[in-house]
Queue: 2 jobs
Job 1
Amino acid sequence: MSKTILPGTDESGYYEIRMESIGGLGANLAGKMLAQLGALYMGLNASSFSSYGSEKKGSPVRAFVRYMEKEGRILRSSPVYRPHLLVIFHEALIGKYPVFDGVSDRTTVVINTAERPESYRKRHQELSDCRIFCLDASGLAAQCSCRLNMVMMGAAAAASGFLDTEKLMELYRASIGERFPDQLAKNLQGLKKGYEAVREAVPDSFTDSGQVSYGVQGGINPFPGNTAVNDLSASREGFIPLFHPEKCIHCGLCDSTCPDMVFQFSETVENGKLTLHNEGPDYQYCKGCLRCVQICPVQALTTAQEGSDRQ
Ligand code: SF4
Ligand code: SF4
């Protein structure tokens, strides 16, 4: 099956996007759509989530998207600290919030502003080695009578060098476009405008590398991190609690400490009394916090690396 080659990844194989926005501008939806684009249309593994305080319009929102090529599994669910692509939905955030945290020479930055990249580079030393694209996305959204997030998604796709705008439009038509058909044409126009505004500034060599090919995937993601099978293993950071049944005194402290009821118990009759025996953790539900290891009084649980030791 054909697949997408990511243009750059970190040491764990992830390509990461962070969107800095304000509640109501649609960054959360944009993050979900970009993840769906990768997973359903471009042969990538993908995940996304957003972080917002009180869920009120007007408060800061951060949306995170993580991609990995198909051979890998996404085992990180933390916020994106070192983005490959940083998308600023509103320039009012700059200076008030640490929106440029974690940028480096590998970061491409897209800013909704009428200013030019050079003026940002001059004022913000941390951007000196970044690739910066500026577009007046608010103006374009007003021009098209569309949502700002559509313009920003188009811009992000162009700046990424690998996210496919035609496929993004197809996804939009098949999802939100179905529910709001009267908004379809305007929003697609906005997406295209955002793409073109950035695409004009991108050198051909950046996008026409000939590396990108893809096919429609469909179905659900069977790997950890989805919500279909409630598999929490994607939350782990490489370590698991290893159970040593021969040492266990079945005190149940691990069970009462574990936030996710991971431990499995069986009923046994001992000396004529019904008792519960700890059978160990069901790793599907274990997020690797290792509180159980700390609480166990007899070292029947120890910290181990995920992998060959996993039961
Ligand atoms: S805390 Fe330790 S000894 Fe107690 S049930 Fe859990 S594993 Fe067994
Ligand atoms: S590591 Fe955390 S989630 Fe996993 S079994 Fe222990 S307490 Fe529960």
Job 2
Amino acid sequence: MSATLDLTTPASRPRPSAPASPALAQRSLLGLSREELGEALASVGVPQKQLRMRVGQLWHWLYVRGVSDFSQMANVSRDLRQTLSQHFEIRRPEIVEEQISVDGTRKWLFRFPARGAGRPVEIETVYIPEEGRGTLCVSSQVGCTLTCTFCHTGTQRLVRNLEPSEIVGQIITARERLGDFPAADTPAGAIVPSEGRLVSNVVMMGMGEPLYNYDNVKRALAVASDGDGLSLSRRRITLSTSGVVPMIPKTGEEMGVMLAISLHAVTDELRDVLVPINKKYPLEELMAACRSYPGLSNARRITFEYVMLKGVNDSLADARELVRLLKGIPAKINLIPFNPWPGTAYECSDWDQIERFADLVNDAGYASPIRTPRGRDIFAACGQLKSESERMKKGDRLALEAAVAV
Ligand code: SF4
């Protein structure tokens, strides 16, 4: 079987939308807390006694109805709509490219305007439709400071953290493109869950280490989980970390979201190579932080991500050690067949070996699904995200085709 990337098919559909990356002239209202939204309205003259009502109206238009223009806010007076549009924006990121995999996975390349003296930045966001759920994989940083050696994003230097408006903007724009707001149509032929919300789950597993952008991620997820707006249950939001141990307790206490650990190795010696932050926060500290994660229970398990690398971490001895390591932690283990990218030195484990590994872990009582590779033909699978300009800069677009041929 081989999957090849055809950049001329509907898999690659340039989508011009917002004007190309103008300097940020107006403050975005997306991603503000209710309190900040109230302060923003007060700053343009909305009377104090109207603030609560106006915040409620705007919140509804922004997050329940998903409007992208102040003019669509029918129950807001014309004068106020005009004032709002003079001072603020609710613009979506520019969609530079939308790619659709043969399996229905969608990947968007989003561009956000320059901030200050910086340049416009690009990130990727991925939608994975499955039976009964639609998961959006959201980025938290442009590039990454960490250099996990199996991860393509890790080869792109950190440009900057994403703002709450830019994190929330990914969710809203994906929902908009999928027709997941009232009065919006789902594109013909789109593969989406047959019932329920089209974006039912969010995973902070895209580009970047979310706990290195803690405040902005926390603020964005507070907006995403607000019950009168985007209304994503915190149990359907998962934050994945490479193991920033000091921030893990705080994440549970303050965000209350589900936790995933990018584990990938069961000895410090190997994890120091695969996930170099391990040198700073070794396995013993990481496991201790997991054991005491606030709210941990059999109903709220930690997911441990484990990428299967041929001859590196996929032996049955590794599987046994994994079971020993996680003893006593309510856990799920996601086994991820390695998704190759241009220039990587790693290969995916043989399928038989992945199954033997999974059987051993399952027999020990851990649910350990083998994650079916999704979106490989559009380079959207786990660990493959990277901004397009970075790919083009490195001239590895052609190598990309070779890498996804399996
Ligand atoms: S796995 Fe996550 S933390 Fe590690 S380099 Fe990739 S994006 Fe960064």
